[in-house]
Write a structure and sequence with these properties.
This protein is an alpha/beta fold. The chain contains 17 helices and ten strands. The strands form two sheets. The protein has a five-stranded mixed beta sheet, sandwiched between helices. The structure holds 6-O-phosphono-alpha-D-glucopyranose (G6P). Its EC number is 5.3.1.9.
Length: about 425
């Protein structure tokens, strides 16, 4: 990926970051890079994720999915980092395999998603790093039951990806299911380029090697200066803008296929950086659609946002048919691709003209190689930003708190967090 931070400069935008400030920040980037390199070399928790392009073995993943390689549909049961990486990849790329992600436990929605699937030719991909996440295990039990009710042997169609131990590992061992391991030291939101994200990609027939090669090429760019490394340029600029008041970061891909990527980014950015009263709030939007809803706020609302555009240089195109209506003749001379590009350029320019900071992330096209680079690049950007903020990028204690409270409420053990639920302050206004 390439990154253009020109519209984040103080000469263009407010908040903005001056060239001099970036030069000074670059000294901190050099120190942070040293820390990151050490973490990677020693396989430290979290930093180990940046070694995935060379650690992940595509053959091992393909061997595990071999029994279901011809599946017409794939149900992935997982949540957060155990679903969003896989969903980003399979939603971005074309495949004949239908994909369903069960990452919520809304009962009507779950039933609806399962309805009409050809279960005798559907694979199940269960993913949980901890192997204890209530939503994932509950949905897996529901899916199993649906298979049993349909007279389909789910044990023949299930692949499990989890840690070395835990309830999901036990269940997988008991039924002798093909299983893969979440690599050590890799938190869920940084695991897209491991079996966690790539089992679904393999079942859908995507090029795993190209995903990893794209990521490896991005890894090659990690150096001690933000001026030489697109990922660090992005992470450092987002951090610098946040420090100057841009506490929100709107991720706006100009490719429908990257809509899920914004969800993945939101988890990465929020869960990694949101701690110690610090962090930048990720917002999700989509070009061109949200030009007609959110752009008003981004251009004229509070000066508390940076907009990140993701664009592609090449994509499939489709011409716009000519029309006899004179006022619409300009459309007939163009294509949908040209319209998309013109809208992106106009939106970018409109923000810059209003002095609103924005950053452009450019991909060649949406394919496995570029996607691998984008996922890796944003992970590296996030790790760098975490170093600059001085937070523990790889933990998520606030999320664990609510997980414990939920388990306590359901009788899954003694958790003091559950007591807070009964202590809620009320000020009800009733109908
Ligand atoms: O993979 P699991 O252990 O099931 O965890 C799934 C998700 O659970 C929690 O909500 C964590 O905050 C996320 O980081 C994690 O990705």
């Amino acid at each position: 990926m390439d990154v253009d931070i020109g519209n984040a400069l103080a000469s263009v935008a407010s908040p903005g970051v001056s060239r001099d400030s970036l030069e000074r920040l670059d000294e901190q980037v050099a120190d942070a890079h040293e820390r990151i390199e050490t973490g990677m070399a020693e396989g430290e928790h979290g930093y180990a994720a940046l070694n995935l392009p060379e650690r992940t073995d595509p053959d091992e993943i393909r061997a595990a999915v071999e029994p279901v390689a011809d599946a017409e549909a794939l149900i992935t049961v997982g949540i957060g980092g155990s679903a969003l990486g896989a969903a980003t990849i399979t939603d971005a790329l074309d495949s004949d395999t239908e994909t369903v992600y069960l990452d919520n436990v809304d009962p009507a929605w779950v039933s609806n998603r399962l309805e009409g699937l050809p279960l005798e030719n559907t694979a199940i991909n269960v993913v949980s790093r901890s192997g204890t996440t209530a939503e994932t295990l509950a949905n897996f039990l529901v899916v199993r039951e649906a298979f049993e009710d349909a007279g389909v042997d789910w044990t023949e169609r299930t692949i499990v990806t989890t840690g070395d131990s835990g309830p999901l590992r036990d269940l997988s061992d008991r039924h002798d299911l093909p299983s893969l391991k979440v690599p050590d030291g890799v938190p869920g939101r940084f695991s897209a380029l491991s079996a966690v994200g790539m089992v679904a990609a393999a079942v859908c027939g995507h090029d795993l090697e190209a995903l990893l090669e794209g990521a490896a090429a991005e890894a090659e760019t990690l150096t001690g200066s933000l001026f030489d490394c697109p990922a660090y340029a992005y992470g450092a600029t987002a951090y610098a803008l946040d420090a100057r008041g841009a506490g929100m970061n709107a991720m706006v891909p100009y490719a429908e296929s990257l809509e899920t990527y914004s969800e993945w980014f939101a988890q990465l950015w929020a869960e990694s950086l949101g701690k110690d009263d610090l962090g930048q709030t990720p917002l999700r939007a989509l070009g061109v659609t949200d030009q007609h809803s959110q752009l008003q706020l981004y251009r004229a609302g509070p000066r508390d946002k940076v907009v990140t555009f993701v664009t592609t240089r090449e994509s499939e195109d489709r011409s716009i048919p000519a029309t006899e209506v004179e006022d619409l003749a300009y459309l007939g001379d163009a294509s949908l691709g040209e319209l998309l590009e013109a809208e992106f350029e106009a939106t970018e320019a409109s923000l810059a003209a209003a002095g609103r900071p924005n950053v452009r992330v450019e991909l060649e096209r949406v394919d496995e190689y570029e996607l691998g680079g984008l996922l890796y690049g944003m992970e590296a950007a996030c790790v760098l930003a975490g170093e600059l903020y001085g937070v523990n990028t790889f933990e998520q204690p606030a999320v664990e708190w609510a997980k414990n409270a939920t388990r306590g409420l359901l009788g899954g053990g003694e958790f003091e967090e559950a007591e807070a639920v009964a202590e809620k302050t009320e000020l009800r206004i009733e109908q």
